[in-house]
Amino acid sequence: MTTETEPGTDIDLVQAEAPFSRVCALTELAADEPGAGRYRGVVDEIWTIGPKVHGGTMVAGSAAAAARWLRTVEPDRAAMAPLSGSTDFLGAPEPGEVLYEVSIRKVGRQICLVDVTLNQRGRPLVRTAFTFGHLDGPERAPLYTPTHTDLPVEPSADAIGYEPGSSMGRIVHVARGMDAFLDRDWARFIDNEQGEPRLRMWLRPRPRDQADPETASYIAIMAADMCPPVPINLGYFGWSPTVQMTTYLRRRPAPGWLRIIATTHEVGGGMFDSDQIVVDSTGVLVAQSRQLALLPSPKR
């Protein structure tokens, strides 16, 4: 589901039943430079926080472009997946059409390096350096498996929904494309209280998005940036511009709910770090991220 939509496909139906596949659906364009890839993509407005495109969604779309070009140039590396992506946000794209420019830096038997720049209206806005390799799978069992979370597999009865029109849904529009719930126990800010800078949530893609293993992997990449900024529990609300983010894809997720846990090592005077892990319905680690971001202003 990472190629452009087949002729005769009802776009509205695809958007309703498999909306994230639209993020990964690319149209190849003529490249400006020999050996480079160039793709047109569309990021629908449901993948926004406020008026701007969600950061993890930009990384996922860029990963789809990187994978598409690597397979085009090096078909023998088709089994490789984006193990990591180091992302710099140069600007804040708006929903709509975007352009991906792709270049391959290294081709190896175990590791390939691919760079992607997301452009919009003639400006480079997101730059990601991807490392491709082979994901862990059932045939490569982990040597050490800690308990990643005690969060139930499905949202609890008092979980906070992101439905359109709700307090969360008015800002985070992702629930129009997949189910999203925030764990109330850790989200102290919901009750106008303060607590530890940590958050947990559940995310469930649409069935058709989950059914395609590659799209499901891109969703795991996106999910690793899904929790609100953790300083919100300390009374700091608003936009937290990311200084730098690194995302890891560990394995393809099983169908069902994804559980996301966000923690921090330190909330400094002007910046904070955030670690997010994504655990699938079977309890295994499928993705993770670490980012450094600027602290927003405290709530007054």
TrEMBL record:
It comes from the Bacteria. Residues 168-294 form the Acyl-CoA thioesterase-like C-terminal domain. InterPro entries: ACOT8-like_C, Acyl-CoA_hotdog, HotDog_dom_sf, Sec_Metab_Biosynth-Assoc, TesB_ACOT8-like_N. Residues 45-133 form the Acyl-CoA thioesterase-like N-terminal HotDog domain. Gene3D superfamilies: Acyl-CoA thioesterase, double hotdog domain. Pfam families: 4HBT_3 (PF13622), 4HBT_3C (PF20789). PANTHER family: CHROMOSOME 23, WHOLE GENOME SHOTGUN SEQUENCE (PTHR38110), THIOESTERASE DOMAIN-CONTAINING PROTEIN (PTHR38110:SF1). This is Thioesterase family protein. It comes from Nocardia speluncae.
